[in-house]
Amino acid sequence: TAIGSVVLLPIMGAVVLSKSEIHSGTSITGTIQLNCPAPASGFTVDLSCDNPLVSFPKTVFIPAGADSVTFPLTCGCTAIRVTGTFSAMNGKSVVTTQISVCPPQASQIIIATKSVQGGNCTMGTIVLDGVAPAGGFTISLKSVSPDVITVPDSVCIPQGESQINFAINTTVVTKIRTGAIVIPGTTVKQNLRVNP
Questions:
Q1: How far apart are CA 118 and CA 173, in angstroms?
Q2: Alpha-carbon gap, residue 196 to 41, rounded angstroms
Q3: Which residues are bridge partners to 106 per DSSP?
Q4: Is 170 in contact with 140 (CB distance < 8 Å)?
Q5: Consecutive H or E run containing 193
Q6: CA of 12: how far to CAs of 30, 33, 90, 179, in Å?
Q7: How many other C-beta atoms can be found within 10 angstroms of the C-beta atom of residue 62?
Q8: Residues 6 or more apart in contact with residue 35 via CB below 8 angstroms
Q9: Among the four 6, 51, 56, 159, which has the fewest Cβ within 10 Å?
C-alpha cells in the first residue's frame, strides 16, 4: 500500500486452519491472511511446524493485489494425540497457531440390512473418521440385546484402512425384536430389527 511516496509492506494478520484438530491420515487446508494486499512483487511466506506428523509446502506465494493464500496440509497416521505449533513467517512478521493430530475414532456403524430373520446372519461395517495407524486400530463392540444379537467383542482395523466388516449373528425369535449395536464410550449406535 502506498502513502505518498512511502510504500507500506504488508504484515501477516493470521494463519487460519480449517480444523485445529486433525484425525489420523486426513487432510485440511490452511490460509495465510495479510493486513493489506501484497505489493507488485508479491509476498512470500515461509511455513514451519514442530509437529512431525504434518506435511505442507515449505513456502507459499501471495500474488500482487491479493491479501490471502490457501495451502494444503496432510497428516500422517498416529495412535496418540500429537500437538505442535504451526508458524508462518516473512522477515520479522510471524503468526502461529496450534495444530493437533489425533487418533482416528469410529464415526458410524453401517448394517447391510435394516432387518433380518432370526437365526440368520448379516454384516456390519465400522467406519473411522481417519486412517488406522501402524499396528492397526482396535474398536470395541457391544450388543445391547445379547440374547438376540451377538457381535465380536472387538475388531481391529488394519493399518492404512478406514473401515472393517464384522459378522452379526441373531437367534430365532417368536416376535419382532429391535436391538442395537454400540461402540462403548461413544455415541455411535445402529439399530437392527430381528423378525420371527
A1: 6
A2: 75
A3: 128
A4: no
A5: strand 189-195
A6: 14, 6, 8, 55
A7: 22
A8: 10, 11, 12, 13, 67
A9: 6
pLDDT tens digits for 12-40?
A: 899 999 998 999 999 999 999 999 999 99
Q: Rounded distance, CA 107 to CA 130, Å?
A: 9
Grid coordinates 513456502 are at which residue?
59
Q: Would you say residue 4 has pLDDT above 90? A: no
Length of the chain: 196
Task: Give the C-alpha separation, 138 to 155, whole Å.
Answer: 6
User: Within the chain, where are the H helices?
Assistant: none
Instruction: Answer whether 0.85 is exceeded by the pTM.
Output: no
Q: Cell numbers for 126, please give them.
A: 465400522
Give CA angle at 12 (8, 15), nearest 5°. 165
Q: How far apart are CA 12 and CA 95, in angstroms?
A: 7
- The Cα–Cα gap between 102 and 121 comes to 34
